Amino acid sequence: MLRRTPELTSACRALNKECTCINTGHPNTLKTGGCSSNGLAVMLTLLDDCAFSGDEPFIGQQKLPVPGVHNSQGAGSPGREKVLNPECWPQIEAYVKDIVGHFRHDPRIQIWDLYNEPGNSGVFVGAPKGMAYDTRLEFYALSLMVNVFAWAREVSPVQPLTVAAWHVPDRSDCREAFTPMWMPGSSDK
């Protein structure tokens, strides 16, 4: 059972932004509107480092977009401060396991994008051509991404697991992240 926390609420808000066919009134519900009847497949995105506003996610009235600036007030999920703080990762683990576990056999979900652009450190607001966030984000996001895949696999979803990659300066840093951890015929996902 999901517990409502500010982190979960922010993550669900990000989930709503990512999936145009999804409307979650409560974290335990999934309403796909006309997706099924129109032959549309749903891909849910759980985490996202695209926090172009530079702000951490928050509950309440959101800032108005800056005209002419792509995703000017976009906040990441669960927020870059949480990505940079491994002490917060048990909350992220609970969120991933709750959401993926709850919908692991749901035919409306065709695929999971576990983490959109991990390590994307772009901040567009307040700088003419953008600026970079904390340089540690890439390393922590990569480490978190590896964990997110392990947590999702623990609840055995039937749908494929993916990540929308951003930038990895040295592929050897990825360790098992891009190595097939599951091969057909093996008993472990």
Written description of the protein model:
With 189 residues, the protein is an alpha/beta fold. It has a domain at 41-57 and 68-170. It is 26% helix and 12% strand. The protein is built from four helices and five strands, in the order αβααβββαβ. The strands form two sheets. It has a three-stranded parallel beta sheet. Strand 3 and strand 4 form a beta hairpin. Helix 3 runs parallel beside helix 4 (137-154). The two termini are 24 Å apart.
The beta-strand count equals 5
Class from helix and strand fractions: alpha/beta
Unreliably modeled segments: 1-5, 7-28, 177-189
Gap from first CA to last CA: 24 Å
Q: Which radius of gyration do the C-alpha atoms yield?
A: 17 Å
Q: What is the general shape?
A: globular
What average pLDDT do the residues reach? 74
Order of helices and strands: HEHHEEEHE
Describe, in short, the structure shown:
With 189 residues, this protein is of the alpha/beta class. It has a domain at 41-57 and 68-170. It is built from 4 helices and 5 strands.
